[in-house]
Design a protein that fits this description.
The chain has 189 residues and is mainly alpha-helical. It has six helices and four strands, in the order H-H-H-H-H-E-E-E-E-H. The chain has a domain of 130 residues. The strands form two sheets. Strands 1-4 form a two-stranded antiparallel sheet. A two-stranded antiparallel ribbon has the order 2-3. The two termini are 36 Å apart.
Length: 189
C-alpha cells in the first residue's frame, strides 16, 4: 500500500516534468491551430458564462462540475499528440498470451504510446487472437491521425468520449498512473 507521503512525493516528482511538458506542447498545438484555439475560447466562455459576466476566475467547484466536452476533447488530444511518455512497461505477473504469443511470468512487456494505431494505420492483427479485454478500439480516419484535431474525441451529439480512440498516456487498469485524476483536472487560464 502506497502511503500518502510517498504518493505526494510521486505527484511532485513524476508529475512536475510531464505536466510542464504537456502544457508546453498544448500551447504549441493551440498556437499552430488557431481555429481550435478560437473554438476552445468559445466553449470556455460558454461553460463559464457566469464567471465571464462577473469578470472573475471560476472557482475550483465550478471547474470540476462544469460540462465542457470540447475542453475535455482538447485536453485528450493534447495528451495524445504530445506523447510526453512514449511507452510504459508492465511485468507479466502470470504466464499469459498476447495476440497468440506466449508471455512467461516475469517478462517485461513494453507498450508504446505512439507510432502505429496512435499516429498511423495500425499493424494488421488477426482479430481472432484478441481477448474480450483487448477488443480493438474504434478506428479513426488514418489520413488525419497524425494531426491535432480535438473533434475526434466528440460523438455526433457533441458529448466527449475518452474511449473513442487509442490512448495510453497513463496506462490502464489497476497499475495505471495514480496521478491521472490530478492531471485531468481542468485548468482555466
Amino acid at each position: 500500500m502506497i502511503t500518502d507521503h510517498v504518493q505526494m512525493l510521486a505527484y511532485v516528482v513524476a508529475g512536475h516534468d510531464t505536466t510542464s511538458s504537456t502544457l508546453s506542447w498544448g500551447l504549441m498545438y493551440l498556437a499552430d491551430h488557431p481555429q481550435s484555439q478560437d473554438k476552445l475560447r468559445y466553449h470556455l466562455a460558454h461553460a463559464f458564462s457566469q464567471t465571464v459576466a462577473e469578470q472573475r476566475q471560476p472557482t475550483v467547484q465550478e471547474i470540476i462540475t462544469s460540462n465542457a466536452p470540447y475542453v475535455d476533447a482538447v485536453i485528450e488530444e493534447i495528451l495524445r499528440v504530445s506523447v510526453v511518455l512514449p511507452m510504459i512497461s508492465r511485468e507479466a505477473l502470470v504466464d499469459t498470451t498476447i495476440l497468440g504469443y506466449p508471455i512467461p511470468m516475469g517478462t517485461l512487456v513494453m507498450c508504446l504510446s505512439n507510432g502505429p494505431s496512435f499516429f498511423s494505420r495500425g499493424i494488421a492483427v488477426d482479430e481472432s487472437l484478441r481477448t474480450k479485454e483487448s477488443a480493438k478500439v474504434a478506428g479513426w480516419d488514418v489520413e488525419s491521425m497524425d494531426t491535432f484535431r480535438p473533434e475526434r474525441w466528440l460523438e455526433d451529439d457533441g458529448s466527449f468520449n475518452p474511449r473513442k480512440g487509442p490512448m495510453n498516456s497513463f496506462g490502464g487498469g489497476p497499475r495505471g498512473c495514480f496521478g491521472k485524476r490530478l492531471a485531468y483536472m481542468r485548468c482555466v487560464f
